[in-house]
Every structure is written in structure tokens, then in C-alpha cells.
Design goal:
The complex is a heterodimer of chains A (about 575) and B (about 900). Chain A has about 575 residues and is α/β, with parallel strands linked by helices. In chain A, about 30% of the residues lie in helices and about 25% in strands. Classes of the chains: A alpha/beta (about 575), B alpha/beta (about 900).
Amino acid sequence: MEDRRIGVFICYCGGNISDYVEVEKVRAAVENEPGVVLAKTQMFACSDAAQDEMISDIKEKGLDGIVVASCSPKLHLYTFRAMSLRAGLNPFRYTQSNIREQCSWAHRDGGPFATEKAIRIVRAGIARARLSEPLATMRIETTPKVLVLGAGVAGLMASLTLADIGLPVFLVEKEPEVGGWTCKWGGMFPQGNGSDLVEGLLKKVKQREDITLFTRAEIIERTGSVGDFTAKIRVADGSVVSLEVGAIIVATGFDTYRPAEGEFGYGREGVWTLPEVKEWLAGNEGPLAVDGRPVESVAYIYCVGSRQPKDSELERPNLYCSRYCCSSALHTALQIHERNPEVHQFHLYRDMRSYGKYELLYEEASRKGSMFFRFENDAPPEILAESRRHIVRAKGQLEGDEVLDIPADLVVLVTGMVPRQNDALINVLKLPVGTDGFFNEIHPKLRPVETVMDGVFIVGASQGPKTLAESVASSLAGVSKSAALLKKGYVDLDPYIAMVNAERCVWCGKCLEACPYGAIEKSVLEGKEIASVIPSLCKGGGACVPVCPEDAIELKGYTSEEITAAIDALIEQVAAPVP
Amino acid sequence: MLLKTADFMNYDHLIVGGGIAGMESALTLGDMGYKVLLIEKEASIGGKMVLLSKVFPTLDCSSCISTPKMAATSHHPNVTIATNSEVEEIGRNGDGTFRVRYRRNCTFVDNAACTGCGECEIACTVSIPDEFNFDLVARRAAHIPFPQAVPKKAKIDLRGASPCSAACPAGVKAHGFVSLVRSGKYEEAFHLHMEDAPLPGSLARACYAPCEDACTRGDLEGTVSIRHIKRFMTDRYYGAHPEPEYGPPEERLDKKVAVVGSGPAGLTAAYHLARKGYPVTIFEAAPEAGGMLRYAIPPFRLPKDVVDRDIKNVTALGVEIRANARVESVQSLKEAGFDSVFLAVGSGEAWTMGFEGEDLEGIVDCMGFLRRAYSGRIGDLSGKTVVVVGGGNSAIDPARVSLRLGAAKVVIMYRRSRSEMPAHDWEVQAALEEGVHLQILQNPKRFLGKNGRLTQLEYLSMKLGEPDASGRRRPVPVEGSEALMDADLVVLATGLRPATFPFAGAIEIRRDETVNADAETLQTSIPSVFAGGDAVSGPSSIVEAIGQGKRAAFYIDRYLRGEPLDGTTFDERLPVMNKEAVIGRGPVSKREPIRVKEIAAGDRVKSFAEVEGCLSENDARASANRCLDCAGCSECHQCIRACPANAIHFDMRSEERTAEVKSVILSTGFRLFDPHEKPQYGYGRYPNVINAMQMDRLLSPTRPFNHTLRPSDGKQPNNIAYVLCTGSRDCSAGNPLCSRVCCMYSIKQAQLIMGALPLADVTIYYIDIRAFGKGYDEFYEQARGMGVAFVKGKVARIEEADNNDLKLFYEDIEGGGGTQEVEHDLVVLSVGLMPNKDVLKLFDNGDLAADPYAWVKEMDENLYPALTSIDGVFVAGTSSAARDIPDSILHAGAAAAQAAAHVERRRA
């Protein structure tokens, strides 16, 4: 390893480093390290001029590894990797040593130790660089086709947009009909009629040759990895088709909460869930009547099946807010008002979550006579049976703990969304599920449709409760991510992945348990069971390395040898104490 | 700002606004392989998200999750970012594509050279409220917007020309040296002055200070004493450095320049040319150099040792001054080997009025009088009566000199009224204080004498008639008003003219005897000969002469280097700042001017000692501290010196650019509700009422203080209130909509406060808690579990109590009704999100539709989110509605998908 030709570039960073670290002393202390053939300082290593200088040094001195001692790799890792490429040096033979955030800025109180620490950090970088090997990113050719699971509005819109962008689509729907909940629900807020929307979309889908629609179909197997999946679909006639796709969009939607028998009187005539009321409204044109009795008074009870308390007796309470129900109930109240303005409507709610522009629905419902009463979760309304009408008893709204009895011909249980029970799909796609039972994204803030399974996207209400507009936005975001993945024709994966030493491995399975990405599988090599790494799934997280009892797994670029060498260099005495 | 250059570029997509939505769209489209132009008006991409402390409900560090996105956007090979840029207009072409015109606002920093090291910030002498910390603290005019900015480049916040600097005919950066003195950088202040004008000692005493007339503080308590500040820094410098610190420049050019006249114009031209390396010789007819500085301005205003020291600034450069050397012709200089000549002969010759008896002994012109007085050739005037005729500055000085020579009575006789007097008012005032008599609306008719010597003058009363060419009313004699006055000496200060007659044959001379030189280049009819100062302008002022000398040096240099004199601009200035806008920027603390000490009028006339004193160091800094920093940056140029990368250039200007694009995504974001619009909450009046964005900054990892403190006294608050729905769900504030994020960010802040200030109580006053997103309600319940108090009730108004604590009045909805009053020591207004209406102006035909609340209208929200009223134009994030970050990301993804589909459909 003494024949390595390493260049070390130490940055002043204007004064950011050199005000606290004696940069020239650092250079002097490392220039004779084994393998180092060149050590120089630069005012700003990241500047174009300094980069040009590095490129000519790499070329002229024939450097086969470099250490840049400057700031955090967060800032300029890609800068220097790109510079290495331009210089003809394998970018993974460049090592970054952080002597700014981790040294000069942390030791602004002065003293000679900042310089000593910087020397150690740079030496550790050199130790790693000595062992660095040229690595190559893995390039995977992608299949420019997308599998969309679920043909609700989200799935239909995703398919149409993908086709527009030039990516052929296989659209798979479990039910005989497309359209999901939307086509049953009639009027949608803020505008439109559900069945009309779906009908229009289906017409467009059928016109497109690049969208293949399978109804009564289900995915039963998925193999391959990002950009290059094979999906097996059992179609309506029971046969199985095999599809090659580059990405999978999961738009399987939600289920509605079904109250338990007797929950807020559910099961009695005229005590219906919100989806039932919507279907009822959509399917009947005449005067509003329940069981032949005209509806003169409607009571809504909000948050049924949502925002359930943690300490409730339920086995798995739904702690979450279902997001769409407040606005949807208000919208329903407005529809009823339109059908018969004489109907009295009473809303028993906890927090009216008609967020954003949906506030206008709240405002309009109030204006049109809807009455709103708030209840606390620990004092929910009760439904009392009467001969002709229901009595909804509300507490805690009036002075002196008086109760309010509301007579209602129709009680609407404003039920929320629940995740679909679809263990088979979860199993096939290895999709992570959150504590709320919905599919889990990789990052709720910034990567809401991506999953830890590269190339598999979760959109619409399969990821969590959403309104129609939000579901479609989410599905189109999934389209964007799919197109971003597939339009280029290939994906490059970082080479920092795990590798198994087949001789040492005894297949105990600990690495398989530790890997959150499903990148470990059992394989057989010359009759011996060993672990093997699926490169396209491995994220280089390193969870498998320390759990291996046989030390049979290493992470490329971060081998035990490299890390040990770096640690040794860090603790090695700095020869000449810096005054 | 001035605009330069234009270039055309083609892109697939234009994205306006580089916040989280814009970055998401840009990255997605870039990954798809499209060429994207991202235009951001701020200096960094990242929008508002990067400034947040943490984000709900995960409590991720906002900047930590933003910066990789920002870096990815800036490194993306398909994404071109234009920061500091503003779209001016987007027009639709016939083929459905778009033409965008945008302006790259100048930052005075060469981004290619700047490394973001921050040295300029340290050197900068101007503090400005930091918009990225929502004005909680100040930043410098030279600054990097915030530590995580992308690109991390410095920006000089120079918004125009400060009125003082703009007013200076010599281009002296008055704002600059004031700012330096304020910072205690006195030598730097002196050196800055020397970049433009080499005679600061003279200017500090005898300049008429147009900078002070222009000063914005003058519209308030009184102008900043810029001249006195200059006097302080110059005296201090000269005291420490009796000799200049520099010698001749190392590089000596071989072209020689002759300067005729050693007044301010000649000295300045010689100085600037010598600094460039030209050997310069000044020819001076008088025995000593300085021109008017030496021979006109009396020593009690401008001591001659100051003039001497000023002149050393010029001669130290190797400039040779030949005194008693009257130049008789241009030709002689040419023959002597000079390659160029600058004529700056001044206006030292008197016009004669042709009064009867003018040639009597005892009648002198003002220049002659002063020259003889200063050289001791006019002795004691005890008991004598002196009459000075004229109303200009040249009349005041002889009058005051006469008093000091012992004259019993000194009269200034002027034919118009006091208000028409060209002399500066303060000079007239000083003369009157010293005992000079002013006889206005009078004019001599003739002088009477005995034995050829003046004894009396006969004069006429005058009245004012029609305005003349100068705009002043012409004086007309009152018939029969003749009167007699005894006089021993008459000084005629009735006008000066240039001594250009020796050159009359060679170059063009105007009828008023001034040289006919080009107004811009000062070149005369002989290309190698330039002329300036009073010789061209007629009698003007020192500072104007200095300006001319500097201009002449600039063009003589070009001439000698063989470069064309046109096609360049000398001393290009930025548009001057609007003073009303400066005062309207925010509250200005009241600061009275500091007066400088003067010798009492009675004592002054006893000697030629300098009348005006010098500010003390404390007073000078206090005076400088009255500066309002009108233009932001003071142009003190410290950043230029500090920059190790040589990246700062004040001659940069904004650029106009054009691009052709196939689709447009608008991600211009929202505007925070301005709580000043809810005066009942006292924001802006009560220091401890802050808005939630300020609280987010106080809680952020890059927080301005190292703690969460309340503004009034810097104490840790321990009873904090949140007022939800400030500016949302509030028709009285013009916004009936819910802003979607305020409940959640308030809950987030409450949780963070629980960590930062474990002893603090937090109460959230709300109407409905809208915790509707994934994990949000759980987050809300978690806050309740941590002990955050939630009170349902709208806060009606806030009043200030003792110790700047606050009294909240709210409607108690849950606790039995009625209004309640409660005290808190810090109130956070959870302000809502308002539409950024600027986006509606971007399209030339105005057909970008808005909803009734001025958000960009989405035409079919359910099926085609992000679709606007214009085919090919999409909207992403909070341009069309209040959205939280995940919804903005999704919406931006939807916009990108549709923009891509749009481009592909058109391609098909």
C-alpha cells in the first residue's frame, strides 16, 4: 500500500478553517504520511480555480487517491466527486475529511488543539484513502412501463397521465367495475358528480391503446427490483399474465369505517353512515324519506371511527383524523338543504376540520341553517330510541350541564376512512405499513409517495385519508416519480452496498432480520446455504454488518479494514506537539 | 437598476419560485430529462421551509431536510437556477410556447468567484434588519442570506444611491465614510475618501456640502453633519500622518501629462493620473500651489497648513508642481514633450463693471484684495470703512477678512435682496454675526476720490423687476435715489472669469471666456488638450472642480491609452433612493444633530484663527450614527478589500434576459398575513407580541439568539399564549378561509417550547384544532399529553400590562361563556397564509384567473389539480391555496406530471 499515490488538499476556507487551525502545520504533519505524494493548501478548495489545480495535479502526478480536508461532505461531496471524474480519477477514491464543522468551528475558543485535531482527522482520511478501491455505480436498464394497482379515480388519472407522458400502463382493478367509491357517491366537493367523473375517465382510458385495463384482477407475485420488475397478475378468467414494468403505483384506496352493531345506534333504521347517506342521496331523486317517513330533521355525529382515544377498550383504536369527513358531511348537509330547505340539520362535532377553502362549506352550511354543537370525546352524544324518531342527546354544550335532546329522522354517523385489508398485496409488494394501518411512505414530509421499496409508489388514500382532489394530486405525484425514474432509461445505484464473504457465512439469518429493505436473501453456493445481497435493493445502511456473528458481511467503501485504519490514525499520537 | 445585455435560451419548463414546491417540480422534471429554468427572486432557493425550526409531525429539523433538496436542485444537470431574478413578463407565442422576460438583479458579487466565505460580512459597516430572521436581529449589507443558502454566495444589499453620495459632484461616497466613522474605522474612512478626491482637509472646511442638503435625516431632526464628520476623520488622520503613507506608484507610464493650474481641479486630475502611473507636472502661475484654496478662501475658514497637507497627497505620488510658472501656450507644452494637457486655470480674474471712478486707488477686485491680504501686503485697516460690492461668496470673504484687519466698518452692498444672494446662507450669517453690515437693494453708481484716492461712493437704491436669464429678478435702479457714503476701501466682488486668454488662439474659447470643452469628456478642440474646473464651468465650487479633475483624469487616461472616449461611462451612478420610502421603511429613532463648537463671534474677528471646531471622537461617531443607511450598503468598500476572491464589483448592473419555454409552473408561494392589519392585537406596538414565523426563528437551530427570549427585555418567557386564526377565518381581516397550517405549527412550537423552556406554560387559544393530516391528530394529542393548554375561544384584543406583559381578552366558549381576561408574558400570533398576488401580474394579457380570494384558480381541482386558466401553465404548492409541506410536495408532483404530459402531447 506504500505504492499508493495520494494527494492531500487542505483548505483555508478563507479564514473559516485557518483562523483556528494552522493549516500549514497540518500540511507539514501529513505530507510524509505513507502513500502521500503531494500535500498542498488552498484558499478555497471548492473554487473553480482550486478544482482545476486538483485536476492538473491528479493528471500530472498520476494520483490514484485524494483527500480533501475542508468542510462537511454534505456541502461538497458531489463537487469533488464530479471533479474526480473530470480528472479521470474514480470518484470513490476521493475521501473527504471534515476539518471545518468538526474542527475549526467547534474550537473557536482557540488553543493549539484545533490544529492537532485537524492533523488527526486528515491522517484518518489518508488512512481510509490508502485502502480505497475504485468502485462503480450500478447501472440498471429500466423498462419504460408502469403497473397501476387500483382503478379508482386516482388510478385512472395516474394511468391517463402516464400514457400522456409516453409510458404505457397496465391498470389492474380487483372489482368488476372501475371508479372505486367515487362513482357511488354522487355529488363531490368542491365540484362534480362522482359517476360522471368516472364515466368520463373510463371513456378516455378505453380510447388509449397504451393503457391495458384488467378488471377482476389481482397481483399475485412480484420479482425483480427498481426499474425492472416482473409482476404476475391473475386476471378475470383465472389465468395469470406476466408483466414487465419499471415502476409500480399502488392506488388501492381505502375502506370506510363500519361502526359496530349498536355504536351510536348503528343498525337501526335511519342510523346510517355518511357513505351510506351519500349513496342514498345519489340513488334517489324524490322527496327525502326514511322507511317511508319524510325526513324533517337530520343529526350528524362526527368522528365516528376516527380520533378514537388511545385508552379506549378497542383493540386497535383509530387514533387518526380521517381528514375528509368534516367537509364531506358539510357538503352532504348542503345537498340535503338543496333538496329540501325545510329540513333541520344538527351537527355534533368535536373540531370542525373544514380546512383551507373547505371553510366555505362550513360557512355556507351555517348560513343555511345548520346548527353546530360541540362535544368532548369523553361525553359523546347518545342515541335514544323513540317510537317514531331518534333522539340524539348531546351534553356539555349548554350552561349548567343541561342536556340537549335533538329529535332526528335520520342520524348520520360521520364515519372515517380505514385502511383496506389486503395482506396479500402487502406481502407481494413488501410494503411497509404504518401504525394506522395505511401504507407508509419513506418520509412523510418530503417523499410522501415513495416507499423504501425503490420503484414502488403509494398514492391516494392507500397512504392515508385524503379528499378526492388530494388523492388525484398524490397519484399524479406518483406519476412524476415514475416518469423521473423511467424516462432516463436507466438508474445508477450507489456502490456502497453490503457484500457477503461466502466462505465465512454460515447462514444464520441474522442479517435477513436486520435488513429493513429486504435486500438479503438466502442462496445456495456450491451446495452451501449462504446469505446473498440483492444489489438493487441494498441501501448500504450497514445494519447487517454488526449483527453477523461470523464477520462475514462488509460494506463496500466502509470496510472494517478501512474504518479500523481510520480509527488507528485518529488515536495515533501527533508526533511534534503543536505549541 | 440599469440593465445590460440580453441573451436567449430555450428550456422545456420554466418554474417561477424556488421554494419547496418549485424545487420538487424542478427536480422531478429534471430527472425526467427535461431542461428546466428555475427563477427565484431571493438570493437563495429553499423558500420559507428552510427557515423553519422543525416540521410537524415528525419534528425533523427543517433545514436539515431542506438542504439536501436545495443542493440536489443546484447540482442537477438539467436544472438551471437564476437566483436574485424576477420574472417581468410571460407572453404566449403563437405556437403555444411561452416567452419569458426576466431580470437578474445585480448583487455586486461575481458568483463564479465568490466562495461564500463570509469575510465581506465581517468587514461590512452597515446593519440592516434581517429579513430571513423576520427582523428579529440585524444582518450586514454585505451578507450571505442565511447559513444554508444555496447558492451560498454573498450579496451586497445596495438598493440605489444614497442621496448624500448621489449629490456629490466629485463622487465622494459620503454614506461610505460616514458609515466607516460610525464603525470606528477612521483611517479607512479617510482612504475611502481618497479613492475619489485627494483634498479632504479642504473639503471638510470649505465645501458647501450638497450631501447634507440631500440627507434624508434632514427631513427629520436635521441633516447628518457629513462635513464635520469628514473634518474629524481627516484631522485625525493628518494628526497621525503628517506625511502621506505612500510614494509614487511602482509602475511608471511613459506618456507625460501637463496640468495647468494647481487649484482643486488641477490637483485632482494630477492625483488620479499619477495614481495610474503617469508622470504629471503641474504649472502654477502663482508663487504657491492651491489656487482658490490658498488665495481665495480665508484662513479662518481654511487654514493654509491644511491646504499644504492636502497638496502633499498629490505630490507624494511624484507629481511635480512648478510654481511661478505661467503657461503661455499649449504649443509650448507640446514642445516640452507632454502628451496631453489639462487646462484648469480656474477663474481668478475679475470682471469689471465699468463704474465711473473704478481706477481710483482704494478700489480693488476681491481676488486681488485677498491675495494681497494673505501675503501681508494689506496692512492694518484700523478705523477704516470697507465696502464690498457683490452678493456672492466672494463678497463675504473680503468682508470678514477686512474685519480681521481691524476695519471699523465693513459693508456688503448688494443690488438684489437677501434671498437672491448667491452666497451660502451660513456664510452670510457668519459675516453678520461678526459685525458686517449688509446693505441690500443698493448698488454703486460711481466712485469719488481725492488725489486719485477713493473717498466716497455714490450709490443707488434698487428695486426688483422681471426675472433675468438666471431666474433671479433683475434689479432696477430707483430714479433719484442717489446717496453718498464715505469709504476708504472698496472691494469689487462682482464676478470672476477664467484666465483663459493665453490659449484663445489655439483652442476654442466661449464668449464668457470659458473653454469650450465636451461636457462629458472635457476634451477641447485639440484632442490632446482637456479642460475643466472653473475654466470650463465658470465660477463654481471646490467640489465641482474636484469632480471635473477626476473626470478629466478618466478621459485623459483613455485618450493616452488610445481607447475611444465614447462608448464608456464615467462615474455611473445608481438611481437615487426615494427619501420618503426610506423614512417609511419602519420606525426611526429620534436623534438630534450634534453641533460643532465655534469661536464666539466677538473673538473671531480678533485673529485669523479657524472659526469652526472639530467634533470629538464620541460626537463624530454619534453624528455618524444618525445615518439612516438610505441605500442599504454605504459603498464603504471594506468588503472589496476583505474579499479574498476579488469577487465584489460595484460596477456590476442588473441584466435583462429572455427565455423560450414550453410550459410554465408557478410556485411563487404565499405571503404571511401581516398582523399589523389586526391592530387590536398590538403587533408592532407591544414588543412581546410576535408572529409565529419569528417564534419559529427563535426556536430554530440557526436561531438568532442562543435561546428563546422575549424581545422587550431578553428574559425567558414562562407563560406563552398562541392566538390562532390571526388573519384566517376572519372576514374582518378580509380572509374567510382557513390557512390549514397554523394549528399544526402552533402545536409544534408548543412542543418545542416545552423542550427549550421546560418551566414555561403554553396556552393555545383556538376555534377548532385542525389536525387533519397523517399523524397530525396523534401529534395534537401528544401535545395535550405534554401539558399544553388548549382553550377554545377567539382572542378579541390584547393590551399591554406591567413589565410589557400582555392582557388577553377572549370569549370563553367552554367555561360557561362571557369574556375572560388573562395575562401572559409573550404572545405569539399564529398568522395565516395569504395569496402572493404578484404572480397574477406575470402574464402579459392578464388571463391568469384567480379565485375570489386572489389565489391562482385551479380550473378542475378534483381531476386536474394544478391546472390554471392558461393552457400550458400550471401552479404548484401555495400559489393556489394554503397547503402544508406534504401537500405542497404532492401538488408540485402533480404539476410536474401535467407539465410533462402537456409537453409530450404537444410533441405528439
